Amino acid sequence: MKEGVRACKRPKRAPSTLFSLFFVCEAEILSWRRAKLFGLWRYWVMPSWKIHNKWARKMGLDETILNEVNELIDSPRDSEHDEGRKSIATLVSEGYEVYERYGEGGLKAYVLHHLLDEAYETLHREITRRGQDIGIDSAIELARVKVAGLLGNSYIYRGVSLGLICEDVFTFLQDNGTEIYYDFLSEIERHRKGSRGTSRRRG
Predict the structure, then answer these.
(1) Which domain holds residue 166?
(2) Which of 14, 35, 89, 122 is deepest in the core (most CB within 10 A)?
(3) Burial tier of 31 (Cβ tally within 10 Å: 0-12, 13-18, 19+)
(4) Residue 181 lies in a domain
(5) How far apart are CA 64 and CA 99, in angstroms?
């Protein structure tokens, strides 16, 4: 196991709904703006596009549109970075725009990107701030609660089965949790080394 990262077994049960909601509310405190304001920017890190594209390919999505979807989420023109995972309304409206432009595959790539970001941020925060590895199953479940919220499988927006697509992506992540977990650990180690290098340069 890599130095500085402690692994643990995948928990058999997802966290309770009450715990999930508490965790989601707490996560809102570390928005990017607050992180910069209080000097906590080093905790606000996301997985690379390499990770996003790897799992989009494994899901069988069209490689030609992946970076365009990544760009839309990470460098939007009319909203904040990652706004779709902070607001259900944005997830629905922006997701529908992606669907109109790229079809169902594009919408899945959009939802996948947000769920991976949220799961990674949750796992990274717990390991780096609290020294506690909550496991990938809990991280993915908390990401589903935060990103998709109360959208059920039957939720349809302008004829698009958005709720079902969110659930399909969530199930895909659950089924591949072990490999995603180790991808995340590698990213956490990369970010940890990067922040140390930045601290040395500033010192």
Answers:
(1) 17-27+48-194
(2) 122
(3) middle
(4) yes
(5) 15
Classify residue 12: in a domain, yes or no.
Answer: no
Say if 121 falls within a structural domain.
yes
Q: What pTM was estimated for this model as a whole?
A: 0.74
* Residues 7-31 pLDDT 10s: 444 444 444 444 444 444 444 444 4
Cβ contact 202:77 at 8 Å = no
In the chain, what is the greatest distance between 2 CA atoms, to the nearest angstrom?
56
Helix (H, G, I), strand (E, B) or coil at 160: strand
Q: Quick one: DSSP state of residue 131?
A: S
How far is the C-alpha of 83 from the C-alpha of 79, rounded, in Å? 7
Rounded-to-integer distance, Cα 23 and Cα 146, Å: 9
What's the pLDDT at 87?
75
- Which position has the higher pLDDT, 4 or 175? 175
Q: Has residue 75 been placed in a domain?
A: yes
Q: Which of 56-65, 85-94, 161-170 has the highest mean pLDDT?
A: 56-65
Measured CA to CA, the distance from residue 136 to residue 139 in angstroms comes to 5
